Amino acid sequence: MSIYRERGERLRSLHQQSELLVLPNPWDAGSAKMLAALGFQALATTSAGLAFSLGRRDAEGAVSRDEALANARAIVEATALPVVADLENGYGNTPEDCAATVRLAAQIGLVGGSIEDATGHADAPIYPFELAVARIRASVAAARALDIPFTFTARAENFLHGRADLDDTIRRLVAYAEAGADVLYAPGLTTREQIRAVVEAVAPKPVNVLVGSPSLRLSLDELAQLGVKRVSLGSNLARAAYGAFLQAATGLAERGDLSGARQAPPFDTINDLFKG
Fold first, then answer.
1. What is an example of a GO molecular function annotated in this UniProt entry (predicted)?
2. What does the radius of gyration of the chain's CA atoms come to, in whole angstroms?
3. Fewest CB within a 10 Å sphere: which of 41, 81, 172, 270?
């Protein structure tokens, strides 16, 4: 059995367990190794975290497909954990673009990935319904044709683009589920009522919820009680890391204050996480 088939099967089984699957989001090989050392069972890439590490603002098209897949490959190769990828909008508008991206993702060892229905255009931020469903259908067909299990997640992006339309979000997620998506995801949901409605609408398929935002005040236990099967953190851990760096560097630059730098973990604590 190939290592990627085994990882794909392991990821599938993690979605079927009774416990909530927590998918942290490394942005490079080093952060992936740290998360693996802490005992997480699977990892997910972050397009925003990658953009920040490249010195770029996060935006649709800020990072090319080749750059994103190279970063994902480094994360895949850093640990023995299953890795899923943020594949943004499939790096193209057409269903064929999405299918090609899924095939390329599997070629570098990814065993799952998500594609969103956001266009990247401010004047029309969300793909029309029929096109959005066709994109998911093509992605699912590409995933099913692979020789490894590939867990495909369909994302409805309304709430991240100023369209807090729960009815349309649910309509889209139900259609994506019917098109064959394995996991459904609407980043930006913040209330118990919104999350419960989504979970019930697409049941029995698992729902992923974006956590880490102050706007979402529910605990992991509370999310699990609502029927959520998976959570991810998006750029949250990357922002936490960059935030600590910014705080320490700002104190040094503005006041000659070393207190922030002195709060860093001991050298050996970090260094030992990169063993193996």
1. lyase activity
2. 19
3. 270
Counting other chains too, the contacts that 140-147 makes at CB distance below 8 Å and 24 or more residues apart are 140/179, 140/180, 140/181, 141/99, 141/180, 142/98, 142/99, 142/100, 142/102, 142/103, 143/102, 143/106, 144/180, 146/102, 146/103, 146/106, 147/5
Q: What pTM value is reported for the model?
A: 0.96
**Per-residue pLDDT tens for 208-223?**
999 999 999 999 999 9
Rounded distance, CA 165 to CA 202, Å? 17
Write the burial class of residue 89 (CB in 10 Å: 0-12 exposed, 13-18 middle, 19+ buried). buried
Q: What is the helix, strand, coil percentage profile of the chain, to 5? A: 50, 10, 40
Amino acid at 69: L
State in words which class domain 3-235 has. Answer: alpha beta
Place of tokens 């979605």: 15
If you search the block for the tokens 């972050």, which residue do you land on? 46
Q: Which two tokens stand for residue 205?
A: 């398929």
pLDDT at 276: 67
